[in-house]
Amino acid sequence: MLKNRLVYSLFICLFSFAYSMAQGEKNVISLKNILAQISRQHDVKFSYIEDEIVIFSVAEPEKNWSLEQKIEYLKKETKLQFKLVAKKYYTIYNNQKLDKPLCGFLLDAETEKGIENAIIKIDQTTISVFTNQDGYFELPKVSSATIQVQHQSYQTFNINPADLYVANCPKFKLQSITQTLDEVVTQRYLATGISKKTDGTIEVKPKKFGILPGLIEPDVLQTMQQVPGIMSVDETISNINVRGGTHDQNLFLWNGIRMFQTGHFFGLISAFNPSLAQTISITKNGSSAFFGESVSSLVDISSRTNTVEATNSSFSTNLISAEFYTKLKVSEKANLTLSARRSLTDFFKSPTYRNYSNRIFQNTVITDLNTYEILDYQSEVDFYFYDITAQFQQKIGTKNELNIDVIAIENTLQFKQSSADLSRNSALEQENFGGTIRWKTQWNDKHYTEFKGYFSSYDLNSSFETLESNQVLAQKNQVFDTGFQVRNSNVISNKITLNTGYQFNEIGITNFDEINLPFFSRTITNVLLTHVGIAEGIFETENKKTFLKTGVRVNYFDKFNSFLLEPRVQFNQALTSALRLEILGEQKSQTLSQIIDLQQDFLGVEKRRWTLANNSTIPIQKSNQVSLGLSFKKNNWLLTLDNFYKKVTGITSSSQGFQNQFELEKTVGDYQVIGSEFLIQKSFNRFYTWLSYSYNDNQYDFDELLNTSFPNNYDITHAISWAGIYEWNKLKLALGAKWHTGRPITTPTSFIVTEANPNIVYNSPNNARLKDYFQVNFSASKDWKLKDKMVLQTAVSILNLLNTQNSLNRFYRVNTADNSVESIDTFSLEMTPNFNVRLNF
Fold first, then answer.
1. What are phi and psi of 5, to 5 degrees?
2. Is the model's pLDDT at 148 over the cut of 90?
3. Which carries the bigger pLDDT value, residue 6 or residue 593?
4. pTM of this prediction?
5. Do the strands 298-302 and 251-254 form a parallel or antiparallel pair, or are they unpaired?
């Protein structure tokens, strides 16, 4: 008996399961059509409100069921009420109070904050709407079709229309898309808003930026100097040295535009508006195969966002400049962003400006007038700078996006010299203009294609009239860079992504020199076309323990009819839950470099001019670099250790800024660096601190100059940086110190005087060093909330808090007055305060 019951129960279960499967396989049709069928089959009538039933689609009930069975089935599937009001006459209604549109909220599953600019689309219709800044949406029409939710940063999500037909606007939580390159090794690296990725890049997000010693706002190029292995031997951001390289060996990109001018005030201030940047990626080694033209670091600045943001603006001013920024939401699918910054220096001479002027103009034509025979002179210096950007972002449909970006940067210096009966005017202008247009198509969640065209124009012009004669020297350095790139990305599986691309680039450089007495004029123009093929594969396990990215960049240089292969690799492996291993390697090249013909080029303020490789006297520079690193993170401790080897070939002596016996030599050589970088960081709730140490052994090899290696001009053997930062509510305090060994110099042994050619006899190159460098910096900031969307930010900084006098450079020259050798030092910035006020609204 028991056995029969078991068999019978099993049969019922199997029958129920089969019936359910059959029901699931049935096509669902609209409730309105089902009611029409029932009306015909059973000779009944149904009364209803169209909008209350149109959202429902269910499987057809069995034809052999009775009328009562069919009504019970529909009540169960739709939760609607069926009321018999007369014989064979039913009214259908919804029990819920629905005096509202079909609406809902989309929230981030982790933060539970509203998701702005998600696309809500009704299938099989052309109807689509966007969520607002709170994630709220309304549908203008009710339908039984599935409602699709799409957003670039979140997984695709479907909503059953019946789920919206409730008393309140329901909330739906979306899971963010985890992208390979977004995996973070550490969330806070040096400061809030700075993080380190598994591919070795350092990412800075200025809008989330905390504070760093000496900074009043997130200056891009000052911030990157806090990273171990990155520094400037002369305190300027126009001479940033990454692992012993020169500034021109770094690639600076702004929204895909190559920037040839990176500084204002001839190197003391970053040329990129700090109000604008969204994400800054800094790569010292192991850069993606999509980036070339640099044998040192990559600084990729993006001011674009994935979503169309709400309108917001800001205005700020400090003791050097004032800036304005606004992002306008011109439609539900478009943003227009404008920013502008201009110096106040031509009509407001603050103490900060005077200190900056003393630092940047020392030992140049502007200040070194005592070499002239005429002593009774006067001089006036007028200087200003500005930068302007404009960006347009347009979402087109659900899959396409258009971006148009332009940028303009300028420094202008007017220099007037006069005596009792003479007057001379000199000028220096430095400009960089650029633009890019990008079209991106997101075919689906796993595939996108991007087309980008760009141009960048750089002009450096100077005119110098000497006071003691009528001689006028005019100089120009012009660069025009243009090209386009195609990039395609496919997610092959949960672990593998394949990226491919093609890039075309044309670059032309013109150098011009002209003297009126005696007349001399020279114009040199060079052009180079480059074709590049790119392939890159990314492998990452689902548990994020293993990350591997390998790529290759194949360059073809049309002028030289030659190919150059550049492999890249980034590997990151979790050894334990707290310890990770990192291996990075790359081969890179660049055809552009900066050289110094004479130390007094461009009034001595901007000595470097861009030039193009000719594959003979100026070869293509090539670099090989490999690094091995470990990072440990546990209990708010962070320790990182990187050991690296780097060799760069094809450098010219003219690009290295020699001011000794090699100053006028023109030859080709290389340098190699072996180094280590160490960082220890600890967080204590509101307080965190770090200490970093860098070691470099950086040696030149110029066979035609010397048959042995000697120290690089940018060799800083030991460097230590410390900072302590306190954050409480909206108050932030930062104190930091920097110390490093002095840079190499070449001392004279004797002085030979002849009437025709007095000259200095030097010791072996870079035989001595300057005294050690030491500086203490301080910053403080406070935010004040004035209204719901209005915030006042105040910040103060003091550079060189102890007013330490540091010698940054020293060279020697002949003093013709007494036929002696004199030592000329360039000193660091004096103690310099600055103050910034920003209003966000």
1. -65, -40
2. no
3. 593
4. 0.78
5. parallel
